[in-house]
Specification:
This protein is of the alpha/beta class. The chain has 2 domains: 191 residues, D-Maltodextrin-Binding Protein, domain 2 (3-Layer(aba) Sandwich); 50 residues, no CATH class. The chain contains 10 helices and 8 strands. The strands form 3 sheets. Strands 2-5-1-6 form a 4-stranded mixed β-sheet. A two-stranded antiparallel ribbon has the order 3-4. Strands 7-8 form a two-stranded parallel sheet. Helix 3 packs across helix 10 and helix 9 packs antiparallel against helix 10. The protein is globular. The two termini are 29 Å apart.
Length: 256
């Protein structure tokens, strides 16, 4: 993920604290959890399981790393906090950024062409996502795209040949640059000359992680409930982590 910085005078600093009106809320929370030391899920002999509760037992003083991450995220939507800058009544984070009323938009490098096309007059820059000062290991969250050949394919050999060609050293750099993505090949991670933003996100490909999750709709439902439970006061952050851990684990077992 990258941080897009709006050069215009802005009214809101960053779109954090809610879920449904932040396009990349799932990725942002995944990043915060990973920076707090949790891989979120883990593959074991019995299948894929949530490990959120494993990290929640460690503590920064009396607050676990994951609870601290959630408290950090949700404070931006708390009117009683000095950092209050966002709420569920706002338009979407991307629309606010495009309108020039949001200073920082946390998203993927691949969104850069869409942002330019949506508002050609918008002056913005791109920066790497901030890291924890206390961490010695840099971590980012990224999306990985891959080709898959269905079992019912009428021409699996041809499909495999096409996928192999498109992911080879001849075509992959061209496709990656056209899509504002980093190629999934360490040998090709030298930023193309003349590309303004590739030097920002190409190095992040080396520190980006993902996690094995339920389908997107299910994960969004679980994460949205987690944020809602904190913002409404139903749960403290630590309790929300435990509830999310159980919900993720149940969803993973149902889908296996």
């Amino acid at each position: 993920m990258c941080k897009h910085r709006n050069h215009a005078t802005s009214r809101s600093a960053v779109a954090f604290g809610t879920y449904n009106n932040i396009e990349n809320a799932r990725g942002i929370l995944s990043l915060l959890f990973m920076q707090a030391g949790s891989p979120i899920t883990q593959s074991v002999n019995q299948g894929i399981h949530s490990v959120l509760s494993n990290t929640s037992s460690a503590s920064y003083g009396s607050v676990s790393p994951l609870a601290a991450a959630l408290n950090f995220y949700t404070q931006f939507a708390d009117p009683s906090r000095t950092v209050y800058t966002w709420n569920s009544g706002n338009s979407s984070a991307k629309q606010a950024f495009l309108a020039g009323s949001l200073a920082f938009y946390v998203g993927y490098a691949s969104e850069e062409p869409q942002i330019k096309a949506a508002n050609p007059n918008l002056s913005f820059d791109m920066a790497q996502i901030p890291q924890l000062q206390t961490s010695t290991i840099k971590t980012d969250y990224g999306l990985a795209y891959a080709f898959a050949i269905p079992k019912a394919s009428h021409n699996p050999t041809g499909a495999y040949s096409t996928a192999t060609a498109l992911t080879g050293v001849s075509y992959l750099p061209i496709a990656a640059q056209a899509l504002s993505m980093a190629p999934a090949n360490r040998m090709l991670l030298a930023p193309p000359p003349g590309d303004l933003y590739a030097p920002v996100y190409y190095p992040d490909a080396l520190i980006s992680n993902g996690w094995l999750s339920p389908d997107a709709v299910t994960t969004d439902s679980i994460f949205s409930a987690m944020i809602s439970n904190i913002s409404t006061g139903k749960y403290h952050a630590a309790d929300a982590v435990n509830a999310t851990d159980q919900a993720l684990d149940s969803a993973l077992q149902s889908s296996s």
